[in-house]
Design goal:
By secondary structure, the protein is mostly helical. The protein has a single domain, classed as Farnesyl Diphosphate Synthase, CATH 1.10.600. Helices cover about 75% and strands about 0% of the residues. It is built from 16 helices and two strands. The chain has a two-stranded antiparallel sheet with strand order 1-2. Helix 4 packs parallel to helix 7, helix 7 packs antiparallel against helix 8 and helix 12 packs across helix 15. The radius of gyration is 20 Å and the shape is globular. The protein starts with a helix and ends with a helix.
Length: about 325
């Protein structure tokens, strides 16, 4: 049974073996570039972890693991265009290094490549794996659209937000685990538990990310603390604060989030309101609820090889960045 570090090294090695045509260079160089920027490789690692719950021969799970990673990076390519983001993992985004048209077309190619890799699983399970993958892929796009809609939508509810992060972030974690289980021959019941484990862990992960964005340590977090507040993003912290604020606090919050002010003064003022309303504690409680649900599903899986997944879930929840 391989550790997280060993599985990560395997994924990196397999990605390095993927060869792209030399021409047209403006189509394939950006793909090689984005995949070479590194990252946590969290999703393909989950595919392999789920597989080795039931079988040691993890080579059979390499192609779907790579498919998940290629698909995830395709979404990043297009998300960066929509967000007009200048940097990805500390380096220029593809649309900044080349241009929007290049990034769009390279992303389209990556989506097709992801399906080519998924289709390399055994013929007996290809239809089942494709169904899980396609459902998650559509939900990721739905989640991204909802996230963009929220920018101009005034009546976003907490259930709306939780559904958005479930689709945008969590369903792909669940699908990665479920596909790993399918590839290893897991029972339908264990497949469902794997999916639910990943989904609930993914929601907890995103809520933790929201919390760290406002209250994390800048050096450990690796990006500017308060970015969501500056961008007026309607995160769980903001929505929960609105729900329990008194009249003055609510008025102040709505005023801060109706301007283009990106000053530290605004960030500090909003964080003060959050702290007075105990939003960090309430968010932490919700994170723990989703994490507990995830762990219940993991406990229900019929396998004695859960240690890497236990370590992985602890790593996500204990992170400070």
């Amino acid at each position: 049974m391989k550790s997280i570090q060993e599985l990560s090294a395997l994924i990196t090695d397999e990605l390095s073996r993927v060869e792209y045509p030399q021409t047209p260079s403006l189509l394939y160089e950006p793909i090689d570039y984005i995949l070479g920027l590194g990252g946590k490789r969290m999703r393909p690692i989950l595919v392999l972890m789920a597989y080795q719950l039931f079988d040691k021969n993890i080579e059979k799970a390499f192609s779907p693991a790579l498919a998940i990673e290629v698909f995830h990076n395709f979404t990043l390519l297009h998300d960066d265009i929509m967000d007009n983001a200048p940097l990805r993992r500390g380096q220029k985004t593809v649309h900044e290094k080349w241009n929007n048209n290049v990034a769009i077309l390279s992303g389209d190619t990556m989506l097709v490549q992801a399906y080519q890799l998924i289709a390399q699983v055994d013929d007996t399970i290809v239809k089942q794996v494709l169904a899980v993958f396609s459902k998650a892929a559509i939900q990721v796009c739905e989640g991204q659209q909802c996230d963009m809609d929220f920018e101009t939508q005034s009546d976003v509810s907490i259930p709306d937000y939780l559904k958005m992060i479930e689709y945008k972030t969590a369903v792909l974690l669940g699908a990665a685990l479920q596909i790993g289980g399918i590839t290893a021959g897991a029972s339908k019941e264990d497949q469902n538990h794997l999916y639910a484990f990943g989904r609930d862990l993914g929601i907890a992960f995103q809520l933790k990310d929201d919390l760290l964005d406002a209250f994390g340590d800048a050096d450990a977090f690796g990006k500017q603390v308060g970015g969501d507040i500056m961008a007026n993003k309607k995160t769980y912290l903001y929505l929960k604060a609105l729900a329990i604020a008194d009249g003055t606090q609510r008025q102040n919050l709505e005023q801060y989030f109706s301007t283009n002010d990106t000053s530290q003064v605004k960030v500090d003022a909003v964080k003060t309101i959050f702290s007075n309303l105990k939003i960090p504690e309430l968010t932490t409680n919700l994170i723990r609820e989703y994490h507990a649900r995830a762990m219940e599903n993991l406990a229900a899986i019929d396998s004695e090889n859960k240690e890497p997944l236990l370590a992985f879930s602890a790593l996500l929840m204990d992170r400070v960045s």
